[in-house]
Design brief:
Protein name: Starch-binding associating with outer membrane
Largest sheet: 2 strands, antiparallel
Pfam families: SusD-like_3, SusD_RagB
Number of strands: 12
InterPro entries: SusD-like_N (IPR033985), SusD_RagB_dom (IPR012944), TPR-like_helical_dom_sf (IPR011990)
Family: Belongs to the SusD family.
Strand content: 5-15%
Keywords: Cell outer membrane, Membrane, Signal
């Protein structure tokens, strides 16, 4: 979102006071310029106050992968689909993690800061001298946001019945002494807030094509359905019957479409999936609720994606170089299916493309990913031959170098990615993919060269018209490189192409927190648990039809198979959207999908470790995050979370 004309960001830009909340949710003076007592005194000030509540959603992601905190998408590093530098987080991803972890306290503060601001808005709006129409709408928005914050807090810290402190109004700093409210009671309050938002006649059904960035009635239905779904699943882990909640979730998800939302598919081609995540379609009929971002010269209102996720040459117009701190875990790339024909899809299997791949040790599979050294029987270049031979004659590959094809190795690996679910190539940059990037640092505005992600690099990290350009190989596209000596799967969804972004550190594309495909797949989850398998298949089919992937009835033949398939579909559809970690936590599958797959912190494209950093499953207590030790030390009414070391 590039222009300040859009209301929420425009108000936030005009009211920089909303960025000044101290890192303590008990702080009772969160706004630097306007005191709460004077903020809610006119319609314009009330709109600014609400912008301050929305602003807490910006940058609320965890501080991982050298990010310093950025978007919600960073939660994917915690999940099955992504990976990053796990060695700078105080052992949070290893056995022995304690309740003193900075991640626990940072997220606790970020979420409760949102609660504080929402409570402040609800109290301030109640007596504000503004029209009843505006008051009703903004009050509904504030309750939606409070429910959103509490949903995340309760989902992470409140499981197994423990719950979290529930504050519905702000008090003096020394009065924040409540213990945890029982988990199910917190879910009930979330549902109450969302029901009141839904029942507000002045809350619009949707904001499709309006770029307001505000909560709508459709968003409230979607979030209430999600709360019912989460509560139903939590009841199941505690031996309680969640059927009525699954039914309520399905009913709410059905209402979302009635509010004007749907699958974005204007051209009827699979390219619609790619275009959905571009700036012109931020407020399409699929984007139900998003966090607004924009480009501005201060770089204060954009999302930090390009630097964290981009390949070396995929920064922005002010700085081409990116750090590649966050990348794709190979397991999710392998999860995208093969399209056999228009009526048939099947699971991907490496052995179908490279005989013996699965039985080859992970370290030695690198031989299949090496670049060609010949073209038409002629050596491509002495540099290429040199770097490839160095790999083949090294200790790791010398015993399997007979598996290498001097000409055709690249085509063999490319074939493994062809005829796959189109979302693979729209979400992930795979080995030997081509992408438009930048040419220098700072980049020239009139040049957007193409790069190919080959391995190993034939030269140092190089731009086409800048640093290292003299090392490029004549006659072939330059190498797209990670900002380290590794070949990773990289993120393509939300990535800038060429000069798409003005600034490396502040990208303009809004971050969706709820979109219609997500709703359809949660709806399918609820239907599976209700044994309504044909209906669940129909919801999944709506998602897959956009990219032309057949939806096989065999995958819905029984409840267990259908449940697993819907979960896999969520993993495929929602890569890089900050959702997977919360899914794996509520399903309690994180151990098997991430930690049991490999204890290597980061994996190269062929599954071997890229560094010595390890991760290890801390224990099943990890499915309920510990109340931070600092909070327990300050408030003796808080109960320590079982399993965590205090």
């Amino acid at each position: 979102m590039k222009k300040i004309k859009y209301s929420l960001l425009g108000l936030a830009v005009l009211s920089l006071s909303f960025g000044g909340c101290k890192k303590n949710f008990l702080d009772t003076n969160p706004y630097n310029t306007l005191a709460s007592s004077t903020m809610w005194q006119s319609e314009a000030l009330c709109e600014q106050g609400m912008a301050g509540v929305y602003a807490t959603l910006r940058g609320w992601g965890p501080s991982v992968a050298n990010s310093g905190g950025a978007g919600n998408y960073l939660f994917d590093i915690f999940g099955m689909t992504s990976q990053g530098n796990y060695d700078n987080n105080g052992g949070f991803f290893r056995a022995g993690v304690t309740a003193s972890s900075a991640i626990l306290s940072e997220q606790w503060v970020k979420f409760y800061k949102g609660v504080y601001r929402a409570n402040d808005a609800i109290e301030g709006l109640s007596g504000a001298p503004i029209s009843e129409e505006s008051k009703g709408r903004m009050m509904a928005e504030a309750k939606f946001l409070r429910a959103l914050f509490y949903l995340h807090i309760n989902a992470l810290y409140g499981g197994n019945g423990i719950g979290v402190p529930l504050y519905l109004e702000n008090v003096n700093a020394n009065e924040y002494t409540k213990g945890q409210t029982a988990e199910m009671d917190v879910w009930e309050q979330i549902i109450i807030d969302l029901t009141e938002a839904i029942n507000e006649p002045n809350l619009p059904d949707n904001y499709v094509n309006k770029k307001d960035g505000k909560a709508s009635k459709g968003a409230a239905y979607a979030l209430r359905g999600k709360a019912y779904l989460y509560r139903a699943q939590s009841k199941g882990w505690q031996g309680q019957d969640g059927k009525s909640d699954f039914e309520a979730a399905a009913a709410d998800f059905a209402k979302v479409g009635e509010m004007g939302y749907g699958i974005f598919a204007p051209t009827g081609t699979d390219a619609d999936f790619k275009q959905l995540f571009k700036e012109p379609n931020e407020s399409s009929n699929e984007m139900i609720f998003s966090v607004q971002y924009m480009e501005d010269a201060t770089k204060s209102f954009g999302i930090n994606r390009a630097r964290i996720q981009g390949a070396f040459q995929m920064g922005g117009g002010d700085n081409a170089g990116s750090w590649t701190d966050m990348h794709i875990r190979p397991a999710i790339a392998d999860l995208y299916e093969v399209k056999v024909d228009n009526n048939t899809s099947k699971a991907f299997n490496w052995d179908d493309f490279i005989t013996g791949y699965n039985t080859t040790p992970a370290v030695q599979r690198e031989v299949f990913f090496l670049r060609d050294i010949k073209d038409g029987g002629v050596d491509i270049h002495e540099k290429v031959t040199s770097v490839v031979n160095a790999k083949l004659n090294g200790a790791g590959l010398s015993s399997v170098k007979n598996l290498y094809l001097e000409e055709g190795n690249e085509d063999r690996i490319r074939a493994a990615y062809a005829k796959r679910d189109p979302r693979l190539r729209y979400s992930i940059i795979c080995p030997y993919d081509t992408i438009k990037a930048l040419d220098n640092n700072p980049p020239a505005t009139n040049n957007e060269p193409e790069y190919v992600m080959r391995w190993p690099w034939a030269a140092a990290k190089a731009y086409t018209n800048g640093v290292g350009k003299d090392d490029l190989i004549p006659g072939i596209l330059p190498d797209l490189t990670a900002n380290s000596e590794n070949l990773f799967y990289l993120h393509r969804k939300f990535a800038g192409e060429g000069h798409e972004f003005l600034y490396r550190l502040a990208n303009p594309i809004d971050e969706p927190l709820i979109r219609y495909a997500d709703v359809l797949l949660m709806w399918a989850e609820a239907l599976v648990e209700l044994d309504r398998l044909p209906e669940a298949q129909a919801k999944v089919k709506q998602v897959r039809d956009r990219v032309g992937m057949p939806t096989m009835a065999a995958n819905f033949g029984d409840k267990v198979t259908a449940r697993d398939y819907v979960r896999d579909e969520r993993r495929r559809e929602l890569v890089n959207e900050g959702i997977n970690f919360f899914d794996e936590m509520r399903w309690r599958t994180l151990k098997e999908t991430k930690f049991d797959k490999s204890e290597d912190g980061t994996q190269r494209a062929w599954g071997a470790a890229s560094a010595a950093v390890k991760i290890s499953w801390p224990g099943d207590f990890y499915y309920v995050w510990g109340v931070p030790k600092g909070e327990v030390d300050k408030n003796t009414n808080l109960t320590r979370t079982p399993g965590w070391i205090y």
